Amino acid sequence: MDLKEYGLIVLCGSITLALRLAPMLVMRRLTDAALSVRARRALSAIGPAALASLVLISLWPISHTLGDTPKAAATLTGLLGVAVAHRWRRNLALSVFVGATAYAVVVINAR
Amino acid sequence: MRLTRVSDPPSRNPQRAAPRWRRPRCHPDRYNAFTDMTSRRLFDAVRWGAQDSWPIMLAYLPLAFSFGLASTQAGYSPGFAIAVSAIVFAGASQFALLSLLAAGTSGGGIILVVLLMNLRHLFYGPALLTHLDTNRLPLPVLAFGLTDEVFATATTRLASVPAPAREGWYLGLQSGAYGAWLAGTASGAFFGHDAAALTPWLRETLAFILPAMFLALTLELARHCSRSVLLASLATTGIILTLDGPAGLAMIAGISAGTIFTILPLKKAD
């Protein structure tokens, strides 16, 4: 391992931080009046839109194994578990726990 | 004083009390007490955020473990793997960085790939700042841990945190996520060879936690935001993934589509 590789890591870390930080610096300089209603609506939509994308992107690798029936059943059961637990208690941690447990139960039973 | 979260809106029927588990732990008026944020209260807010980060921790540990293991298998030292996680702290691009380094790709090529893979982070900061009204913590501290998972959780949960405590809560959230990422990387790098001992069903289940967390967060947000935003984002992301497009591009396109659908109705009204 040489210093060049560590230097590259520091550079990549700096780029990642800059991508996260630069828009925040610009945003903080803007006054409330400088942001139009439309811009505020657009900003408020970024979170939900990003989340919807992340759901699909995180499920995409699993979708390639859906030909494997037990895996497909486990995935569907797990997702259903998350949805039901969320409707029941609206608690993030509980929903994830119920979904993961349902997934594990199907996977173990399929073996 | 202990920080408490804002619970769901009060029942439409005032005669009917909300179930015990949905009642706020203290009266909302008492949140005003946090306008004078002492260091003790800031610590409480940070601790609260760290407690709320456990679903992210659970999702990060296996991912970071895989990264630590892959790193040592590629011939790098555990110290190098931990340094990458500590300095870069960006899941997918860390894996890409490792593969490109191992393949002997030039520095310029690696930097370009990392830049493109993390372009989506440009959207997160401004959206996050709309929830944070205070300026106690320096922006680089807030920006450093702004990963997909931290942003997703913060977007969903910040509205239920009293405004003066939000920065502290967010710092706790990203600290919990960062700690888990480092711990997972170190575990994978040092004990990765014992990974075979990990039963396959447990490995599969841990891999399912990330989509489960994103789905739960989306369901939570879906109650408060326009369905058209979610559908536009899902459809656009789905189309690009179906066409074998890279995940980073799919995400940027999904965010853009959702945002455009939000401002379109206003255009009609003009």
Any overview of this molecule?
The complex is a heterodimer of chains A (111) and B (270). Chain A has 111 residues and is an all-alpha fold. Chain A has four helices and no strands. In chain A, α3 packs antiparallel against α4. The longest helix of chain A is centred in the first third of the chain and has 27 residues, at 3-29. Chain A is flat and about 55 Å long. The termini of chain A are far apart. The model of chain A has no long low-confidence stretch (mean pLDDT 85). The model of chain B is unreliable at 7-12 and 18-33 (pLDDT under 50). Chain B is built from twelve helices and no strands. Helices cover 67% and strands 0% of the residues of chain B. At the A-B interface, α1, α2, α3 and α4 of A face α2, α3, α4, α5 and α6 of B.
Briefly characterize the structure:
The complex is a heterodimer of chains A (111) and B (270). Chain A is an all-alpha fold and 111 residues long.
- What general outline of chain B do the C-alpha atoms trace? globular
Query: How many strand segments of chain B?
Result: 0
Number of helices, where a helix is a run of at least 4 consecutive DSSP H or I residues of chain B: 12
Mean pLDDT of chain A: 85
What is the overall pLDDT average of chain B? 80
What structural class do you assign from the helix and strand content of chain A? mainly alpha
End-to-end Cα distance of chain A, whole Å, is 43 Å
Contiguous uncertain segments of 5+ residues of chain B: 7-12, 18-33
N→C terminal distance of chain B: 48 Å
Query: In DSSP terms, counting alpha (H) and pi (I) runs of 4 or more, how many helices of chain A?
Result: 4
